[in-house]
Amino acid sequence: MVVLRADPWMPDYGMGFEVAADEPSGAVDPFVETEDWTTGRSGAPRAGALVFVDGVRRVELRVLATHGARRAAGLFGSYAVGSVWSNGEAHFGEPVLRRALVLGGALQAQPVVAGELEFEAECEPSTEPDAPLARLQTLMRAQEAELAKGIASGPHLLVLADGPLAYTFYDVPTVSPVVGVVKRSAREYLEPAQAELLATLALAQRTPVFAIGDENARERRYSWYVRIGRVGPGQHDRSALVRCEVRAGIGLDAAIDVAGRVAASLPVYAGRPWDARTPQNVVPIAALEQWLRHRMGDTRLVRRTLMELLAEAA
Amino acid sequence: MSERVGMVIGTEDATPLAFWVGVAPDAYLQLDDPVIVETDVPGKGIVRIAGIVEEVRARHEGAQFDSDVFLIERGVLPVETAVAAKVVATRFEPEIFVPPLPGLVARRARGADRDLALYFDQMTRRVPAGLSRDGEPVYLDLDFLDGTRGAHVNISGISGVATKTTYALFLLYALFHSEVLGLARANTKAIVFNVKGEDLLWLDRPNSKLPDNARADYARLGLPVGPFDSVALWAPPREGSSRAIPAVEGRADGVHAYYWSVKEFVRGRFLRFLFAESEDERSQIADLVARVESHLVRETHDDPDHDGTLLYRDPLLQEERKILSFDMLCELIQGKLEDEHSPWRGRLSDATVAAFQRRLESGRFYVRHLVWGRESEDPAAHRIDWDAQQITVIDIHNLHDRAKRFVTGVMIKKLFEHKERVGSRIPLHFLVLDELNRYAPRDGTSPIKEVLLDVAERGRSLGMILIGAEQTASEVERRVIANSAFRVVGRLDTAEATRSEYGFLPAVTRQRAGILKPGSMILQQPHIPVPLQIRFPFPSWATRAEEAAPPSADTVFERFRAPAKARR
Predict the structure, then answer these.
(1) In b/e form, how buried is each residue of A202-219, taking b as 16+ CB within 10 angstroms?
(2) Over chain A, what is the mean pLDDT?
(3) A285, B60, B248, B317: least surrounded by Cβ within 10 Å?
(4) pLDDT in tens, A237-281
(5) What is the rounded CA–CA span in Å between residue B193 and residue B396?
(6) φ/ψ of residue B137, rounded to 5
(7) From the list B75, B79, B80, which residue is nearest A87 (CB)?
(8) Residue A158 contacts B, CB cutoff 8 Å
């Protein structure tokens, strides 16, 4: 008989293309920390600030670019990245706000100044209709990584970056560890024998650390799952789980240490029950995204400014 | 001078009448702070908009739910705290009614800017009226008090908490002990009725319990610290005593007993104030009172043997009798009315006459000790002379209600007639009267109410200024209140504060009126479009026997103690 269990996320979330695309692939070694996958593990929090890093992006206006006979889709987009520092009290770090004109089909774009808005030019070789959007996402992710790295150059921090680790982290050591926190794992990394543990993890417990990617590979990383919220009645047993990862370069012992700290600290920040992506969308991230969207300005005004600009140019 | 405190915000509508100022994190604005914003009007130049803070709010921006505050406290949810103050505009210079634009710098008005915001720069003669909440002096415009452009003060508030009389006296103190009255100061007089306890019988003594910080308050207001300079204290004589000894408990010296002679009673037509119940005026009794008064005036003559008594001569019967006492006067009236054919009765019905007689009998009992005949040795010495000293306190607190009405009615009428006769506004006469609702009630008419209405409506030109007080303005004759240039409100009952009489108070201020502390008042004056909360300094004159006690006893002991300590 087929058993049905509810997913607590709102239906609009969790099935985006970016989720699967960003997640690393490669051989999985579940036994780097231990061979015992029967019980969950706990950790202890440590002094020092937790820094959450995240970004948001928005398409302001889609355009169709023509150059002679060539045509390609493009867009005016905005993206912003920022941080939340939490150490007894929470505050926002300095945000970065950028805007870009992305043109597909390898059409050369020029930077655009519309009123007080400055759009950098980005050239995207692909002609796929969604390619400019994917490029905007990449730009945002790169900016996130940049910010996270800058923050992680300070000591005694634990930097929690939203989403899988960006490739720029793979071989760059940082003073404080940077942890990628994946709200929803689309890939299945564990064999059924180990995956059984996921269903039984209690609140603030984690799985043993496992490795993704070949040994000595540049993109190899250590990963683990943490349960940051309780599973509600009728919900499936993978709800309230996040997957975390750190670059393997920090060493296994350090990775295990970080895994324990994250398992102990993160549940405190679990998203509120009414959040559309509860509980994985942790409170600081939700607040940061709202705050950053606000910083990007009113999309109606941005759009109007661009429309006026294009009308004048026509 | 004025320091930057924030900016006009654009998330709330800015209008010419009210706008919100975002308060900078390193600054603050509190209720009643004066604020000034300069806005550039195309083609007109800079317009200075001044206003008063009416409301201040603080909120977490980014928090959506009430429970978020707990997450914020634990450092889970990052938010920003925003403080904004609502400013009610009081003045535009020049008068172009535009809203200040969002993003403009708002400053806390100090010095000349503050004078502009509160119109103090337009007051040529300023009377210290108290201190604002930030400790700066607040003034009222003498032009609106002395009859030049307006007159009268009305004070409302709950008894005991609102300190209405104390504030009235503070105003008098400020008038009499500052230079604002100029040359007219010495001749300006005030009559104060003492209606509660013996509180006002110590005005001429310094307050030994004056806290030190109150001295600074007086200094800031430019006032000396001390008692009233020139005070006359009057109390009714003890009942049943053949000598005029003032009926006061706490004070043995310096209080004079007051009474009127039978002659004054008749000639001054005081009889009507024995019939001062409000319902009397509606009935025909008032007609009868007037008839009796004029018969008495016409048919009595000076007694050659005594200055305070009269001879009665009946025009028809040619009988002559001496009226040697108030009782004899009452008996004469009763006798005249008993006679069915007496011209005193006129065509009034038996029922009216009977009602008159009943009231005279009961009233006479309560005022008997206030009207003296042959037993009076020196009537002039016991006649209240309001011009002898600057402040004349008339104690009525122990009198029966009818006697209170009699005394106040007689005094106000006499003063009013005096002012009418003199015919000049200057020197001013102030009249402080608490419990206005008793003397000038909203419903009905009475002789006192008539006189008070005269004062309210004509006192301005006659230089007779009423400082009236009551618990509830809603129970006082509208015209008395409407003629007051200054409205002062102390602690108000919340239900009372919603009445239309307090329509000049904005909603926020009404709420504040319910939590005012003693010593705090809300002052509305013609110049300033919003009422201001003020506090006035602790009285530097004694208000109780304990405060009047000479402090020397303590200091004497201190002198003994100091060397004792040194020896040890």
Answers:
(1) ebbbbbbbbbbbeeeeeb
(2) 90
(3) B317
(4) 888 899 999 999 999 999 999 999 999 999 999 988 888 888 889
(5) 7
(6) -65, 145
(7) B75
(8) no
